[in-house]
Amino acid sequence: MALSASPYSVKDGETTSLRRRAPTGFPVVDTASSSTLRPAMDPHDLYGLPLDRFVAERGALAKALRREGRREEAAEVATLRKPSVAAWAVNQLVRTQRREVASLFEAGDALQRAHCELLAGGGDGDLLREAMARERDAVSGLAEKAAGLLSSQGHELTPTTLERVSETLHAAALDQDARAQVRDGCVHRELRHVGLGSSAVAEARPSRVGRTPRRGDRNKARQLEAARKAETDARRVAGRAARELQAAQDRRDRAADSLREAEDALRSARARAEETAAAHQRAADALDRSSRSD
Hints:
single chain; 2 domains; 9 helices; elongated
């Protein structure tokens, strides 16, 4: 599906070539022994490694290629971008949660169809709301799994990171170019979708050639689009608030655990002090008795 303009943007003002894929057919070097090559594998497998290994493995691979005289390939590998934490989490979801990711894409397609049919004048508002809920649930479910992946690898679960994971999944659900890159599992920056996209609407309309949407249909479509934007904004705010609440609860639980540990330590120290004080008193009494007997 060709797009005249991409309906998503990359954060922090960076641009991403969505059609770019890592070169294939390169050997990957074991950094523990740079002279030993593993069986040939795709460099995009670098994006499946633990995040803290990416730079070392990329450098080892580029070095091995230069040693073999494959300088152009080495230069290309050297330019592979280390993913952000959020992008890394999305890459791991693609590699480990294939069924859930496929369900996300299906939900995104259903949402696009429902939206296009409504704009063309023959859609059903209830079906659109159901499709929105299905896509939202798919994103939320995968975001929860991403939180588990990040936690298991020792990455901090900040609300911003989790929100960026959700936004990237949402972009992949609704935009074909974003989906193509996410499906490869080698995203290096998070993506954000803007609107439902004009390309899908343009393809849906020819199926109803000859019918001019009534003014009421257009008003209804605009109202639904505005309502959807309001719902998306509210969902983002609510999600951020929920994550902040969870983070606060986690901090409270940790503080409560620390307080209990401190109270236990205080009780132990008090008991020890009382025991040593009693022992000192007994020793003093024994000394006094000995002095008197002399």
